[in-house]
Amino acid sequence: MTGGGSAPPSQFLRSAFWAILTAISFAFMMTSVRYMDGKFDAFQIVLFRALIGILLVIPLVTKSGFGTLKTDKMPMHVVRTLFALFAMATLYYALAEIPVAQAIALTFLIPLFTTIAAGLVLRESVGIHRWGATLVGFAGAMVIIRPGVIDIDLPIMLVVLSSALYAGAWSSVKILTRTDSPAVTVFWLNVLMLPLTAIPAAFLWVAPDWSDALPLMVMALSGWSAHFCQARAFEHSDASAVMPFDFLRLPLGALFGFVLFAEFIDIWTWSGAVIIFVAGYYITLREARRSRGSKPSGQIKS
Q: Which of 8, 85, 153, 205 lies 20 to 30 angstroms, CA to CA, from 142?
């Protein structure tokens, strides 16, 4: 991967283009779930997403051959799938109750939880700068949640829990990609989700009608597109170079929420989101610098 600061302008512009599409895709995905307004259980929505995800990945798999899907890390694939499954489910439950932009603002906590997982679970070196940025980011979350000032309801806590679970999924992927390709991890994620979601969905099943076809397709396609575009964005530039475009998810979510659901976002949510995002971006910068080995050994770790 070419470093973001040294990438040619043409490569950076391509990465920026894909990063913008990533933000748009995530905003569409979360808005489509909000649009369904809790009609379907979250596990049924994840089941729909897994089914369509498999249909989308099959052409890629058949092109390269099914032999490329072999893995020696199946237990870790199961762990990653469980993290991702419950991360999606808790987020989708919350989206039926809270504004799209507020949910998006709290998902900016994912890099902060990932830092905690890196230090405490993966035993990576996490220095004072990144721990400090993590604390600042959680202070931003407190600006949004404002415990003691307003009631903390369950949907808000579900989004925070979802961010922690997504961090677990990200950390699992970090382990898996040491030996398995991204295509393998995506394939097994969708395949393993089918039986895990089919069981609860069978008990909570609500038959969709034709009016549900569009939001369900938008949800599944935009969710797949978000991950595909994100991978393309990181292909030629560091995450630190393209991450600022990720903030576009918030104004886009606020716009969609206002137009479709007449949702208004207060100044506390905007302020907290900025604090969380800046903290997450700083962590990403420090991680990029550390991974490029720009500091001689013996200096203070990031």
A: 85
Q: pTM for the full model? A: 0.83
- Give the residue numbers spanning the domain of 59: 9-291
CA dist 51 and 193 (Å) reads 9
Domain count, the chain: 1
Token pair of 34 as six digits: 């909000």
Task: Give the ranges where the chain is alpha helix by DSSP (H).
Answer: 9-35, 42-64, 74-95, 100-107, 110-120, 128-145, 154-176, 182-203, 213-233, 239-242, 249-261, 267-291
* Nearest in space to 126 (alpha carbons), one of 138, 115, 139: 115
Alpha-carbon distance 265 to 187, whole Å?
37
pLDDT per position as a tens digit, 25-65: 999 999 999 999 888 999 999 999 888 888 887 777 777 66
Cα gap 219→214, rounded to integer Å: 8
Structure-model confidence comparison of residues 89 and 64, the more confident one = 89
Residue 1 lies in a domain: no
Asked whether the beta carbons of 133 and 286 are under 8 A apart, the reply is: yes
* Both tokens assigned to 262: 């007449």
DSSP assigned state of 68:
G
**pLDDT per residue as tens digits for the range 162-214:** 999 998 888 888 788 778 777 788 788 888 999 999 998 989 899 999 988 99
CA distances from 56 to 183, 218, 239 (A): 12, 14, 25
Residue 2 belongs to some domain of the structure = no
